[in-house]
Write a structure and sequence with these properties.
The complex is a heterodimer of chains A (319) and B (145). Chain A is of the alpha/beta class and 319 residues long. Chain A has 14 helices and nine strands. Chain A folds into three domains: 129 residues, Rossmann fold, CATH 3.40.50.700; 40 residues, no CATH class; 117 residues, no CATH class. Chain B has 145 residues and is of the alpha/beta class. Chain B has a single domain, classed as Rossmann fold, CATH 3.40.50. Chain B is built from four helices and four strands. Chain B has a four-stranded parallel sheet with strand order 2-1-3-4, with helices on both faces. In chain B, helix 3 links the parallel strand 3 and strand 4. The radius of gyration of chain B is 15 Å and the shape is globular. Classes of the chains: A alpha/beta (319), B alpha/beta (145).
Chain lengths: 319, 145
């Protein structure tokens, strides 16, 4: 029997997830020894036609990172789904949209206007914007269509497993790969792999006390105590609304958790979870005062849904 | 928009608002039939995710009813509900949903009239807003810097 076939692909992502795979260091050799890598455009020379030539379900595992932003992303997701037995949404973009998903706060036209006309560094007097097809003397040129919204991978195809993180931590990547290499029985379909089942606070080394917040601060506005809970000091830390598994890296370095591991188990919406956590610690009973305290948060949607906007309950139900 | 009947989901606390709604019914007060009540033990039990799920599942409006400030059976559940509701309204607005679709009211067990009034008023407001279509943003969507 041949080695199991492994494919890796990227869609709308920064490429960090590809680096995360290589960050397992020399163990990558073990991956190569155990798997037959059949598609990995970032690192090896394969073409789409190599995938098209495969039989349905011939690829054993596909690690797919990146959200679905363009028609090409969508086509590749569907193609790889068809050819793969197991589809893994690898990293935060494929899992729940991540940073590219924040663009869902704007229309496609709004995004194009901002990028191609309005930014301070743009000089575009002819108002050129990307069009799906352009006529040139030699014929018609086509580029992928930019969709109205970014969708996580499971917005377009069935996903078997999720590996959260922006990017997934190397030791967690290895834990997932090792599981596959050793041929252990697969976990239930739909599981989140390479993460723990509690919240980031559970792993956090800082000391928590009774929280009473009257004003929210941004990190540059105050000096934080080395050992105290960041939230106790009024800094918005998404720890209470984030799945554990990263090893509390950011908070250990004095940076609040941004929530890249997604919502904890049994919580359907990270923003709602974060909002509930903050509502419990705001120290006021007066509507006007509460409103004023809430208003000290610059961008609540972008802060609480930084990584999960495209997967938020409201967004998931848009067409 | 003719013939549109809004669906409003109401989370009513066991000790005050639900009893108030019950009294309104027993007293045969006239009110629009658009509200579907759900009894919860306390308005503080209403997780923000419940509200979002209601909107995502087809509710056009959500009403949260709790005890008057100072009267909460569990001392301060209603204050938690208030903070969550104010927070949620801001989040909804930023996500393109009119914040008037979420309303929090203090209704005691004896305030049947008040309950009927809130229901009638909210039904009219949501009727005027039209059906909640998550694909259609109700506020300006492109923020200029």
């Amino acid at each position: 029997m041949g080695k199991p076939k492994l494919a890796l692909y990227w869609a709308a992502s920064c490429g960090g997830c590809e680096i995360a795979v290589l960050d397992i260091e020399e163990k990558i050799l073990e991956v190569d020894a155990s798997f037959d890598i059949v598609f990995w455009p970032c690192a090896m020379d394969f073409k789409v036609k190599d995938v098209e030539a495969k039989a349905d379900g011939e690829i054993d595992i596909c690690l797919f990172n990146g959200g679905i932003r363009t028609s090409e992303n969508e086509h590749m997701a569907k193609l790889l789904r068809q050819k793969s037995k197991v589809m893994v949404a690898f990293g935060s973009c494929a899992h729940e949209g991540c940073i590219p998903g924040l663009a869902n706060l704007y229309t496609r036209e709004g995004i194009f206007e901002r990028i191609y006309f309005d930014t301070q560094t743009t000089n575009n007097p002819e108002k050129v914007i990307p069009r799906p097809s352009t006529k040139v003397p030699e014929g018609e040129l086509e580029i992928p269509v930019f969709n109205e919204r970014l969708k996580p991978l499971d917005g377009v195809v069935k996903v078997d497993y999720y590996v959260p993180g922006c990017p997934p931590q190397p030791r967690q990547v290895w834990a997932v790969l090792e599981h596959l290499i050793q041929g252990k029985p697969p976990p239930p379909v739909g599981s989140v792999l390479g993460a723990e089942n509690k919240t980031c606070c559970d792993e956090c080394p800082r000391t928590r006390e009774e929280k009473k917040i009257r004003k929210f601060y941004r990190l540059h506005e105050i000096t934080v105590d080395e050992n105290k809970c960041l939230m106790d000091e009024g800094i918005i830390c998404c720890g209470p609304a984030t799945r554990s598994g990263c090893g509390a890296l950011c908070v250990s370095a004095g940076i609040p958790c941004r929530g890249c591991y997604g919502p904890p188990p049994d919580s359907p919406d990270q923003g709602a979870k974060m909002l509930a956590a903050l509502s419990s610690v705001i120290d006021s009973q007066d509507p006007d005062e509460i409103q004023a305290i809430i208003n000290t948060i610059e961008d609540p949607v972008g802060t609480f849904y930084r990584f999960s906007l495209a997967h938020s309950m409201i967004e998931r139900n848009r067409k | 928009m003719s013939g549109f009947e809004p669906k409003i989901l109401a989370f009513l606390c066991n000790w005050c608002s639900y009893s108030g709604a019950d009294l309104a019914g027993v007293s045969r007060l006239k009110m629009p039939p658009n509200v579907r009540p759900i009894r919860v033990m306390c308005s503080g039990r209403v997780d923000p995710a419940f509200v979002l799920k209601a909107f995502a599942s087809g509710a056009d409006g959500v009403l949260i009813g709790g005890c008057h400030p100072g009267d909460c059976h569990y001392a301060e559940g209603n204050y938690k509900a208030l903070r969550r509701a104010l927070f949620l309204q801001r989040m909804l607005e930023l996500q393109g949903v009119d914040p008037r679709r979420l309303r929090i009211e203090w209704i005691s067990a004896s305030e049947a009239d008040r309950y009927a009034g809130v229901v009638a008023d909210m039904t009219e407001i949501v009727r005027a807003l039209g059906p909640l279509n998550l694909d259609r943003w109700e506020k300006v969507r492109i923020r200029k810097r």
